[in-house]
Amino acid sequence: MPIHDQGYRRYGGWRAPRGQAWSVITRAGVRAMLAKRVFLGLLLIAWGPFLVRAIMTYAAYGAASIPQASYFRPTPETFRGLLGPDGFGGVLIFIITVYVGSGLIANDRRANALQIYLSKPLSRSEYIFGKLAILMTFLLFVTWVPAMVLLVLQIAFAGNFTFFRSNLFLFPAITTYAFIEATVLSFAMLALSSLSKSARYVAVMYAAVIFFTSAVYGVLYAVTRSSSFSWISLSNNLEQVGNIIFRMPAKYDTPWPVSLLVIAVTVAVCGLILERRVRGVEVVA
Amino acid sequence: MNRERVNAPSMFASAARIFELSLGQMLWSRRSVFLGILLGGPVLLAAIVRVVVEMYARGFRINGASVAGPAVFGLIIWLLYIRFIVPILGVFFGTSLIADEVEDKTITYLFTRPIPRSAVLLGKYLAYVVCTVLLVLPSVILVFFLIVPMGGGSIAREFPSLVTDLAMLALGLVAYGAVFALVGTRMKRPLITGLVFAFGWEPAVLLFPGYLRRLTVAYYLQALVKHEMPQDSATSVLLQLFHEVPSVATSLLGLAVIVGLSLWSAGRAVENREYVLEQ
Amino acid sequence: MAPIVAADHLSKWYGQVIGLNDVSVTVPSGVTGLLGPNGAGKSTLMKLITGQLKPSKGSLSVLGEPIWRNPALYFKIGFCPEQDAFYERMTGLEWVTALVRLNGVSETEGVAMARRALETVDLVDAADKKIGAYSKGMRQRIKMAQALAHDPELLILDEPLAGMDPIARRKTIRMIKDLGRAGRSVIVSSHILHEIESMTANILLINQGRIVAEGNVHQIRDLIDEHPHTVYIRADQTRALAREFLTQDDVLSLKFEDEAVVVQTARPDAFYARLTDLAASGELGGIHEVTSPDDNLQAVFQYLVKS
């Protein structure tokens, strides 16, 4: 027939293999966040500690003739300090987690978009993973990336690999700790986000979890003068694990396997919450 | 209805009606239930501590020295209520007084009534104060009765200090609520601003010498706390070193000025702002 | 009679986006339909009239007074917004009572007024049910009730029929017409044209932030004399009729459909007169049906909006 059918025709082009739909969600989420100027400003500020360290490193090697300049040389503690959750970097990690993560699932629930998402060839795991990857991308951008860049700068400014060779553990340590931190914070925020339709409520719940557990630990420490209750606070567990990974002395009396276990249990519980809450329909009875 | 005979309700009468409308909404909303659970945390902690002490019957000891219940109660007041619960309740409720109505799209019904918009804010603020006081004060009272008798503490002797603490916490809720109501009406991202103010700006600025600390609620509020400030961290030690305590009168005046200015400014913001609802 | 709404060079923009563009219009008392496609500026105009937004430029007065920051005017205005938002935990009666009490009435009077309003919208049986359990149509009606409860002079209804079943729709349309007859002024916005047509002949057409036309729908139609009028004629001898029509210079085009001829004429009055004579004489066979797809709001609207 010379006259072609103008009706609906099935798409016959290339399709990505199944199981990659999560990347669509991630890309869209990352682009949406990067379109906000305020958020870009926040990311810039989050690189502030790195900038300070980079200048110090430059001064350490650039002004090597001044004896005091050696104080500015980076140590493994420098890289540990960049990764939070304590210090100024920790505050920014908290703000970014709240800014990016509080509405990730809550906004979809508010707009009744979960049904639409899950009616596509997209599994629940892909949806959750896609959302998780958005938050993890930005958290790693302000933790892992600046730490790696600082490591590269150290080598560049020093002009040799001495520091790197004598601290070979740094690269895996930075990577491992950054991923553990990003994973547990992302899971926690995502799980809370799935519990509500209000991003604001989620943000406060997250703040409550972080600060309240720290406050309870503070009370127990002030009363008992023992830091073995540090496992109560998620931030403290991360600090403990971080110090061990960076071969630094443990900050608290809690054995580090306990801290790691608490982190693992937190991730598992959050995973369970997500499994129950991320559904196309709400089960009433 | 004879429209000529009914007068427009006054600002405070309008606020009272909004208060009635909002109180029920706030008290029985899911977030208040959640906060009730949060406020149960200190009570649970106190109960566990009390049970452990009773079971071991050795009293509470720090570094071998016995510690009385009132001291522990003071620690809990400082570390849980003043530094965390009161500010977070202020942030949570205060920033969402109007924002919640905007998000739920019910603000239209209130703003198309013959009442000033600032009356809506005032009414909701009053409902917040009542709601949070009803949540916090019973929690503190329960903790008091659980902890104070330990180690020879006397409830009768410490009761006046409980009353002072309750009044001080209520004042804290009033002050933080007003400040964060202002933040909620003026800022685009009030929650983050509120959290940064409460948990970033205030603890940091209290360490600075000079007048900056007077730009915090904590400076005036903490002066009203009779319990000794805990030394749980280097920051606390530094705070003790630089701790400048204004008089009770100065603190009360300072808090009154903060509340008045914040509510006035928030009212003005609400009167002049256009609220465009999401379609 | 003084206009209920008077806008003079009224503009509203949101950042770079113009919501309303230099609108000067007066809305008379009675029932007025505000028509426009989505994004035309209907909601912006409604929000300006109800004092939720401040004009960026120009002036707007409602019932003779500026509405922005003039809460006293709300004694005389009842607004039924488009959004489906309520205090879900309250019952219908509680909610309407709470809102009407903001007008300064006592608890007893407020309950009485709320009950009357619920009776008007036929929700008395559901008065003590939580709004969260209401159907879509009931939710629309409870919104109407809160707008009516304080007996306002001017009712502003934003898409009041959305989500209603046909019976409720008919009842609401009748209620709006009754309100108009009782001396109330009503401004109803919608994009469903036949509903507006059934409520009022007085319309305000808006598109892309501008008023496209205002007045009686028939007057508007008459004014569009450049637009050819389409007439559908079902007859026995369509070709004979067509031959007759083609001799007249006001006939611009014609086409054949099943047992009918569709004619476009530049002078509908003259054409209808000749057609009547032909039908009466029967010389070109029987003429069974004459309709004009143009003589309704849809055609007017589509024509005006497209141009």
Secondary structure elements and their pairing?
The complex is a heterotrimer of chains A (285), B (279) and C (307).
Chain A (H helix, E strand, L loop, with lengths): L20 H14 L2 H10 L1 H15 L13 H7 L4 H15 L4 H5 L2 H6 L5 H19 L1 H15 L3 H5 L3 H24 L5 H26 L9 H12 L10 H22 L8
Chain B lengths: L10 H17 L2 H27 L3 E3 L2 E3 L1 H26 L4 H6 L2 H5 L5 H31 L7 H32 L3 H16 L11 H6 L11 H9 L5 H25 L7
Antiparallel strand pairs in B: 1-2
Helix pairs in contact in B: 1-6, 2-6, 3-6, 3-7, 3-8, 6-7, 6-11, 7-8, 7-11
Chain C lengths: L4 E10 L2 E11 L3 E5 L6 H8 L7 E6 L2 E2 L10 E4 L11 H10 L5 H14 L15 H13 L5 E5 L7 H16 L3 E6 L2 H7 L2 E6 L2 E7 H7 L5 E7 L2 H9 L4 E7 L2 E6 L2 H14 L5 E5 L5 H10 L1
Parallel strand pairs in C: 3-8, 3-9, 6-7, 7-8
Antiparallel strand pairs in C: 1-2, 1-4, 4-5, 9-10, 11-13, 11-14, 12-13
Helix pairs in contact in C: 2-3, 3-4
Rounded average pLDDT of chain B: 84
Gyration radius of chain C, in Å? 24 Å
Number of domains of chain C: 2
CATH class of the largest domain in chain C: Alpha Beta
Helix content of chain C: 25-40%
**How many alpha or pi helices of chain C?**
10
pLDDT averaged residue by residue of chain C: 87
What's the CATH topology label of the largest domain in chain C? Rossmann fold
The pair of chains with the biggest contact is:
B-C, 35 and 35 residues
Instruction: Describe the largest sheet of chain C.
Output: 6 strands, mixed
Q: What is the percentage of strand-forming residues of chain B?
A: under 5%
Helix/strand/pairing class of chain B, anyone?
Answer: mainly alpha
- Helix-strand sequence of chain C: EEEHEEEHHHEHEHEEHEHEEHEH
Helix content of chain B: over 70%
Strand tally of chain C is 14
What shape does the CA trace of chain C take?
A: elongated
Q: Quaternary status of these chains?
A: heterotrimer
Could you describe the largest sheet of chain B, including whether it forms a barrel? 2 strands, antiparallel
